[in-house]
Design brief:
281 residues; mainly alpha; 13 helices; 0% strand; globular
Length: 281
Amino acid sequence: MTSPTPRIRRGISPRTLVITAVAWLLAALFVIPYLEMIVTALRPADELRDATYLPSHFEWSNLVKVWTDSTLGTNLRVTLLVAAGSTLLVLLVALPAAYYTARKPFRGRKAFLLLVLVTQMFQPTSLLVGLYREFYQFDMLNSVWTLIICNAAFNLAFAIWILTAYISSIPAELEEAASIDGLGRIGTLRRITVPLAMPGIVTALIFTFISAWNEFVMGLRLTTVPDSQPLTVGINNFIGNYTVQWNYLFAGSVVAILPVIVLFAVIERHVVSGLTAGSIK
């Protein structure tokens, strides 16, 4: 009886070691600022200016006081409404527009897509004066609906581009087969196209949600009442003319980034597949 051939163990190549070391270094560079933010959020008020990496003790009450001594809870609710509302509005408008653009080679299709791309190039700050005057005339300042409309408008172009690319990569023969089986246009869209285009839809969803969640300029200028301001503006209120409440500022920042990190971690794989939509034929 022959003995089994021993397996040859290959050592880790120097190239792999270098790549791994560089990857860990880059990860540390990205993580260290967040760790510093968490540590500062838990520092006692009398140790904020100390040049030490860790405080003498962690002041966990900072996370409680930031809610009780400010309007941060209301600001968080406003941001959730704005982010969710603008994301829903973008998907309701972008999905039919992208479907028609991908499936109907109408005259002026390229011009339409170019126009959509051009609208994405406008910065909110360049249109802020006009937007303020319009919403002032309609008596819509300090309104959640104002922020929802603005955020949806500025994120609509990106969603149309992403969804158009993904729907174009879905074979049209699947929809033709469904129509032969008796499904109408709406039924085909709901039962065939939307499930297959879900990675692209999730990509548009997460980017729209994050953009609306992090928006600051329009929230600062179109809302002046603290109870109607989004979370980004509410955190900015901890910066005064002469003093900065650093512990509360960083505690509010921790509250602001946690939902986005959790959301992105849950659907990250869909985002990657959606971004590569249409790249391989």
